[in-house]
Structures are given as C-alpha cells and as structure tokens.
Amino acid sequence: MSTYFLEMRNISKSFPGVQALKNVTFCARKGEIHGLVGENGAGKTTLMNILGGVLQPDSGEIFIDGQKVVIRNPHEAQQLGIAFIHQEPTLFPFLSIARNIFISNLPTNGRGRIDFAVLYKRSSELLKLVGLDKDPRTLVKDLTLAEKQMVEIAKALSFESKIFVLDEPTSPLTDKEVEDLFRIIRDLKARGETIIYISHRLNEIFEICDTVTVMRDGEVVDTMPVSQTNRFELIRKMVGRELSMMFPKRKNTGKTRVVLEVQGLTKEPYFRNVSFSLREGEILGIFGLVGAGRSEVARTIVGDYKRDGGRIFLDGKEVVFTHPKEAIAHGVGFLTEDRRGEGLAPEMEVYKNITMAMFWHKLRDGIIRLDLKRERKVAEEYIKELRIVTPSIYHLAKNLSGGNQQKVVVAKWLCTTPRVLIMDEPTRGIDVGAKAEIYHIVSDLADQGMGIIFISSEIEEILGISDRILVMYEGEITAEIPREEATQERVMYYATGGEKVHAE
Q1: 60 near 12, Cβ under 8 Å?
Q2: Cα 104-105-109 angle, rounded to 5 deg
Q3: What are phi and psi of 173, to 5 degrees?
Q4: What pLDDT shows up at residue 362?
Q5: What is the pLDDT of residue 367?
Q6: What's the CA gap between 467 and 445, in Å, rounded?
C-alpha cells in the first residue's frame, strides 16, 4: 500500500503553443506540510488547478488515500475533501461568518427553513478550532484579511476537507497574523491533514514545511525533506543556474547632488517629522515593519495623501503636489505596492499598460489625436529593454506572470522619464528569478542617474540593494545607516523601536 495520501502521477497538460506540465509526479503524505516552489510559470498553478478540478489533464492519474479519482470540476474536488485557501479570500462580504461557512450546506429544520441555532452552534465550534474569537453573526466585510482566511479554513473544515492547498497565503498579512496562520496550519497537521503550501517566501518554507518540491519549466526538479536542503540550493534548482549574485555590484552609490529633499513631513496618524534627502544616482532603502508608515510617506510625497506639515524640495525648488499627476509632470514616479489593484489595468493590452502614464499625442488638422504608432513603438522598446516575456504587445496584462507584470509597471513609469522613482514593495509576490531581474533593472536606472527610493519589508532585499537605509518605527525615522555599516541585527534593532540615531 502506498505511503502517500495524495498522488498525482505522470500529469501532463498543454495549451496552444505551451507545454505547461510534462509528466509531473507530485505526492504528499497524511499529516505533512508539503511546500511547492518554483518561478512564476513553472507549472505550480496549473498542477493545483488540475487537483482542484479547474483544469483537466491531458494524461496522468490522481489517487487519494489509495483510490483512483477523476476530478471533473471544483465541486467534485470539494466532495473529495480538497480545499483551496487563496491569498485573496473568496467570501461574500455582506453575509455573516456563519452563512459564509455553510453557504452551500445550510442546516434546516423540519419546515425547510434555516435552523439558526444549529448554524451558529456549528459555526462557533469551527471558529474555535481555527482560533478566531468572533461572533458567527459578524459580517465578513468587518473582518481583517487574516480573519477572512481563518473563515475560509473553517469553511473547509465544515466540508471535512483532508487536503488543504494554501496559495501564497501570507502575502498581505502582518507578522502577528502570519504567526496565527502558522499555528492553524500546525494544528491541521496534528489532526492528520495534508497541507500543500505554495510560497515565494523561502524563509516560510523552512519555517513551516516538512517536505519541499521544486518545479521548473513544467517539470518536477526535485522533492526533498526541508531539513536536508538550504535556501541557496532551492534557488539554484528553481532557476536552473547559480544565483551567487542576486544583487548587482553598484558602479556608484549616488552623487553629491540632491534631487529630492523632505523636511519635517507629517501626516497624522501615519507618520510625523520625517526628513531625508535623496541624491542623484542613489538607491535609498526604506525599511520598517507593517504599520511603520513607509507607504504613507511615499503617497504623501507624490500628492496622493494631503500632508499635515513639512516641505518637499525637488532639485532645490519647493514643490507642493496635490495630485500624483502633478508629481509625474515634475518627474516623480510612484510604483505602488498593489500591482494588480493600482499599478496595472489587467484587462488592457501590455502596450497600453506601458504607455498609460504618458499619452503620446500629435496635432493633425488642429485636432489632438492619440499617436498609436508612437505608443506601440515605445512599448516595444521597453519590452525589449526590460526583457518582458509576452507573446505580443497586444497580450492582456492579466495573462503575464507576476514578474513580467511588475516589469510592465516599471516600464510604465520609465515612459514618464522620471528624475525620481519611488518603488513600494516592487518585488512582492514574484519569484526569486524575477526578483533578481528587478534588482538589476533598479541598479541600472540608478547608474544612469535616477534617484530611487526603494521601500521593502524584506530585510535581506533592503541590505542587498540599498546604498543607504532609512529605518522607520511607528511613523518616525529611527535610523539612517550607510550600506557598509548595515547589518540585519542593526536594522531590526531600530525597526523594533531602538533609539533614534542618524549615521551620516
């Protein structure tokens, strides 16, 4: 008898012009947390969509608890005890927690009406299992993102699910919420459930997983116990090459000329009295834990938030931006942390996304028209320069991998020829190979003289890319550290409330 609870054997799947999966075998045991990693486009999502009944394989077999199964649709997957927990919960916001948990299986009384006493009792029991102390009558819209994920897990438990697939579940969560989620995952493991954990955050793989499978180009490269590998080996297997240089060596670390100066900037309750300067050709990193005020500083600089106090100087001249379009006009670009919600128009073509921040016009017969020829040419130039992988400029942005979507957003801001580019979490949700490409793009832009503010919650990233690091805690700058003096311990000391020190 097989030692595996889930077996996906020799799975192949092709789409027009693309072999997405090539004879993939993926197996997981009961009571195991099994990590699944790989670059965007490696085949992880396609494999899990087959397990979830969203896609049908061209060939291969699936076994659950030793029994061969055919999963024709998501409903059949659910009946077989397979549950998916996505990074963006799929709940009904204006229904109660209880109704969401039992949405397709509401308990009824003898008259065919909802038995609310049973509904709330069962919901309370499930909420207790996942550690969510909420009244089951609470509307889902009033929950935090982490609480919504707990409701999703409670919903999965209501179906007596035995296989839980968690796809990038921690991307939008705070450190405390991640701890709570990991506690629930460990509880599920203790109950004997099988957990498949998909993440680009390799530190999480080593913290929570027992086994890890690496995929690349539609194939399984290796499966191994987490205790028998390390971060560098995983990265090498994921990208198919050594990544001894994730971060490029900088040709220069900024000139003496200041392009942006911020004095006493304040926006209550987010931050107060923030002062710093950015030099030409410099990458200025801003690090802080969730709630430190980093993103709010960026949005206030570009005029998305109205400041309560302080002054901003661009090339030595004071500026007051009341809208981001004014910042763009002055050569200040802002790449937001919400790529899909604010950075992209997913339903539009790639070329339109690239040129949307800077429309190309020319005058014909006294009428201003959109210069489509120029627009497409510019898009093609940036696609080539940034090595954006897309079938054509007319491909919809939503169909690109996360890394290529992010490069499209970078291209969009380069179209505006900025002097200053503010990048908020520019590598969030993309794989290690795409991250390395973004780092090289950022370094090249700085070498060309652009001043870059690089905001990140990944300390390794901040240490690797920045020429200088500002550390924030509870809305204040607690330290300014040159690259050569920055260590993980020192940065974290100030990010957790260490005394305010400025190192020149």
Answers
A1: yes
A2: 135
A3: -100, 155
A4: 43
A5: 52
A6: 14
Backbone torsions φ then ψ of 264, nearest 5 degrees: 60, 30
Stretches where the chain sits below pLDDT 70 are: 1, 40, 87-88, 171-172, 241-245, 251-255, 358-371, 498-504
In the Cβ-directed half-sphere of 141, how many Cα atoms lie within 13 Å?
4
The DSSP secondary-structure symbol of 341 reads: I
- Cα–Cα distance measured from residue 279 to residue 192, given in angstroms and rounded to the nearest whole number: 55
Residue 37's nearest CA partner among 202, 170, 189 is: 202
- Give the pLDDT score at 31: 95
Does residue 234 contact residue 37 with C-beta atoms inside 8 Å? yes
Structure tokens at 16: 């027009």
Peptide bond into 269 cis (omega under 30): yes
Q: Scanning the structure block, which residue is given the tokens 């016009």?
A: 361
Give the integer Cα–Cα distance in Å for 380 and 358. Answer: 15
pLDDT for 364 equals 46
Q: Is 195 exposed, middle or buried (0-12, 13-18, 19+ CB in 10 A)?
A: buried
| DSSP-assigned letter for residue 360 | -
pLDDT score of 504? 38
CA distance linking residue 377 with residue 380, whole number of Å: 5
- 102-105-108-113 Cα dihedral, nearest 10 degrees: 80
List, in sequence order, the alpha helices (H) in 214-349. Answer: 231-239, 294-301, 324-329
Tell me the two tokens of residue 65.
Answer: 């608890």
Amino acid at 383: I
Between CA 442 and CA 451 the distance in angstroms is 10
Please tell me the distance from the alpha carbon of residue 219 to that of residue 84, in angstroms, as a whole number. Answer: 22
Nearest to residue 487, comparing CAs of 459, 454, 465, 456?
459
Name 389's Cβ contacts closer than 8 Å, sequence gap at least 6: 400, 401, 404
The answer, as to whether pTM is greater than 0.70, is: no
Which residues make Cβ contacts (< 8 Å) with residue 493, sequence separation at least 6?
Answer: none
Chain centroid to CA 171: 5
457 and 425 in contact (C-beta within 8 Å)? yes
